[in-house]
Amino acid sequence: MTDTTTASAPRPRRLSLPRPAPLHLAVTVLGALLVAAAHFRPWEVAFLEEWPLSVDFTTGGSGAFTSDYGQWTLSRPLHLVLTELGLALGGGAPGAIFIVLAAVAVAQFLVVIWTLRAVSRAFWLPTAIAFVVAMHPLWPGGFLQRFLPAQTAALAFFIAAGLILRWLLRGQVRWIVAAALTLLVGLLVYPGPAVAAPLLAVVLALAVRASWRRRIVTVVVITATCAFMTLYSLVITMLIDPGGESYEAGNIAVAAVRSPRELVTYVAHTYLGSGLTLVAGILALAVLGAVLALSGVVSQRMGWLITGVALVSPATSIVYFGHVGWLQDIDRLGYVATLALVAGLLLWPLTSTGARPRVQTVIAIGMLLVTAVGVVRGIQHWQPSMQTQKQLLAELKPIVKKASGDEIVVVIDHSGTYGTQFTFPLQYLGSASRVMNQDSTPVWLCFDSTDPYQIPGGGVECDPDDTGTDLRLQTVVHRPGGDVDIYLSRKDSDD
């Protein structure tokens, strides 16, 4: 099933890449090392669910993953596969997840270069854009191992882009089949790209001069793949396990968006409240499209297409309609928006006319400088929470070691510091203490309802049934908002 329609750029004669020049090889290796270094930070240890995942893996191995998280991840069955691989590499230490995160990021860098080689033998511009994509300067979440599934799905998204291009250029069915399967695997890890992927298909179909049959097939196949994944997550999983509650189904039942207007309102508030950097990035790509078009670097049609993709990128937030909390999380919204922005950015090297090389060089260098700033910002984004975690864990260490028998450690936070999204919500403190302090003494975090602040969403009010009544103060941790008291206690007997 092929045809002879020509593309907008010369076709490569073969799939194998020519032997790179020494300088090109050195730059590629350097870029890969920089990408790896930015993502490999095991000293940060863990965040959120990595703590209990580490405990489960250490105590029960892979079987614990299946028994504890099988039902929860039924709607995204590959979600924890690479996380488990990281834990296996580190013998259960959550910091080893960064090994896999770094490998995925490097793979993104190399895959984007490969994707762009479908239509161009140029080196510098595709490599610069691949570096920007792999460093995701607008999405700080990507530097944290908690987002390994999202990064893995992004890798599948980029691979699918390269496969789609080769389908459009050559018309061999195996390319579009491989694209659909690759994308499906990515969505089974994390379904976030389910709206950005059809947008990518439309953009590439418009960018490459191919037959309308190929273009239509591209959009239909990629959209159908995403639709199938959505159907599987929301409907088929309920048929497989009628009494179960997967991640997607459970959240939708609790806090799904009730109307399109509500969705738009939440997204707008999140963008304007905590996503101004993302807004700046969207506007920058929109301006870039106009500059490239008006300077003749790309055709008028392609330049304005880049601008259009940038401006519609926030619409990808619709993928998070299942929970209003997701729509208030700029890391989630930033993830899907940046995938859309990548789709637009790829049009530059894919459709470049070769005109104005100095203009292109200046813009590319500017992008790299902005990316460097974004990388520093992205890594710094998490440091306050990391230090806050480590401080409390260090204070807990001598106390959990001191505990004996059925004693527990009770942490009463009068400062409102802990129990938030990135400071031990949902009793993750107990798992974190077990991992970091190598002690199985139970640790309970709670809050006093008489304190002036609102109890964090991931926290609970202190209850004698949980803390016992024999509270013996061991130490006080001073935080800006107040004190954090740490006690030894025993739960009261039921007799």
TrEMBL record:
Question: What keywords sit in the KW lines?
Answer: Membrane, Transmembrane, Transmembrane helix
Q: Where are the transmembrane segments?
A: 21-40, 95-116, 123-141, 147-165, 219-240, 271-295, 302-321, 333-350, 362-382
Protein name, as recorded: Glycosyltransferase RgtA/B/C/D-like domain-containing protein
- Origin species, per record, is Schumannella luteola
